[in-house]
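request received
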Amino acid sequence: MRALCYIGGRFQGEPGIMSQSFSGHDLTCIRGERVVFAGLGFEVAAGGALILTGPNGSGKSSLLRLMAGLLQPEAGEMRRDGADVADDPAVHRSSLHYVGHKDAVKPVLSAAENLAFWAAMRGAAGAIETSLDALGLERLADVPARFLSAGETRRLSLARLVASPAPLWLLDEPTVVLDARAVRLLAGLIARHRAEGGMVVAATHTELGLGDETRLELADFARPHQPALGAAAL
Amino acid sequence: MGGYGAFIWPSYLIAAAVLIGLLAQTLVTLWRRERTLAALRATIADSDAEKDAS
Amino acid sequence: MTAALRQLVLRDLRLALRQGADAVMVVMFFVITVSLFPLGIGPELNVLARISAGVIWVTALLATMLSLDRIFQHDYEDGSLELMILAPVPLEAVVLAKVAAHWLVTGLPLIVAAPLLAVLMNMPAEGFATLLVAMLLGTPTSSLIGAVGAALTLGARRGGVLVSLLVLPLYVPLLIFGVAAVDGAITGLGVRPHLLILGAMLAAALPLATWAAAAALRQSQT
Amino acid sequence: MQRFANPTRFMRMANAVLPWCAALTVVLIAAGLYLGLVRSPADYQQGETVRIMYVHVPSAWMALFIYASIAMASATALIWKHPLADLIARASAPVGAGFTLICLITGSLWGKPMWGTWWVWDARLTSVLILFFLYLGYIALNNAFDDPTRGARAAAVLALVGAVNLPIIKFSVDWWNTLHQPASLTRLDAPAIHSSMLWPLLAMAVGFTLFYVTVLIFRLRSEIVAAKIRNLRLVQIGG
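response:
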């Protein structure tokens, strides 16, 4: 069977297909006629965690968006369990969560309505209450999102990770507006996710206490002087 | 021109004006950009020279 | 998948209704603009009757166009669009659901308001039924084509004005056959060919415009 | 990969062709003008004003031809992501808009002596007017983004959407014209082409096409230099 099922784990039979590895080979990314990085490779195994580090503008967000499939690489490829992601992007998309800088929360809807919508979009019934509890938002379930603070809005966005399970988590600086207690909550969630065979790729400066995570320094792959392969190369 | 010169000449003149205007705008932009490129390369060359010297 | 799409349409409708009078504002624009014409052109009833179909159709298309940026703009700005692109549901289906929601909030109210304006413009009675049927076929197409324009101008400078420049030329066939259908009914020359063509345009716009809008959304991600 | 097909080879080839192209343009347009204005006979019906046709009709052909090449270049750019295709489409649009403008102005100048009004809602003139709006939309969208590649991709989709809609617009405007055909309006038809009229027409048409190619090559060089400038500025910041 092409997609290995993680026997005995929480993901067995979940809508997102469980997978054992996610890797990228010789990736080149261009944004706005600028080569952000080139020749970049990475590897994440089940239960693994990859932390992206590097100065501002080194392409951490671009790499995460590229991993999610929002951006197309100029060159190189990404593999999910050995199969090229480009062959079947829908399978890759359905088995990942992407939490970017923007929280995708509608101020007019209540916290529970926002979460229920995103769970439904991913086809998971999803226990809304338990997801809100996991992020400490149970009291705010029926409060319209416009009354939530930045930290609470970010925790609502992170609640999507719990509401509909997906093996691969792509987190872009998740702890930026979180307080210490929330960071501990998130670290706990990540640890539990990894214990169940999930994978996490995160761009972050704060210490998430992951312990055995691998690190990828984006600055090593920067190409400041290489002209973008577009018009300038003519 | 059978008295219709008042319509024939303007149409040719306008056509010529548009085409030549287009060509002129293109050439002016090209020369201006080439001058900017040369200037930019010069400044980068100088700054590289300074870096090597220091 | 259909559950997800239904949720999307319901969410958009809830947003539109809770966020206040989007639908009402569109209809208000429609009513006020049509009422300006008699003030400008003069109250002679036969003149108004002659131009009633054209005025109603042009104003309806303008009203749809003014509300186009609501389809994707808010979701683009708050990051929802990214998650919709990443949802397991195909993006074309998401576009269709969003256009359906947009049509329910703007297209349908226009159709409901149209007879009132036909009376204001002294349109002959024979034209009313055809006007409704023609708008029923035409306004979804205008939302579909408008969605392509809205998707293309995401993140553009002065996107609102730009959408009108891109979309209005594409509305010309709709306008021509919409008005022709109503005039056909009024003059009794026959309505069938015009309505058939309007239907054909809708049938063509459904797959093509949806595909183009989805392609435009994908390329809008930087 | 096709993507790395060496574009600089194309530019070298283009620069080699450029002088010939420019020279031939001048020769052909001069010949067209001479044949059209001096040698060819006046039309028995429209008299001298038919000479406007030698500018009006070729510019109408150019307006359509350039829009078609923009659509093809856009399709190439979207499918194979070749940077040169984006540039060709972006560089061609103003030339196409220019020809469309010439077509509209000469069309109204040609109509004035016959109907006494500057603008006649003739089916073809109306279609050319809408094509002009499509050109303006394309150019506006192409320049509406800070990132030129973003603008190029969005405009490419628009060019294809426009190309699909053009025949539909043409069909509906013609239908609209027959619906509202007042008896007196004679169609703005080119009279039966006598061979002496055909040559200036063809000379002008080919002359205009070569003019388009010449200006296109200059504009391509200009776009490439602009891209190099942007890149050097990025390197300056990044460096």
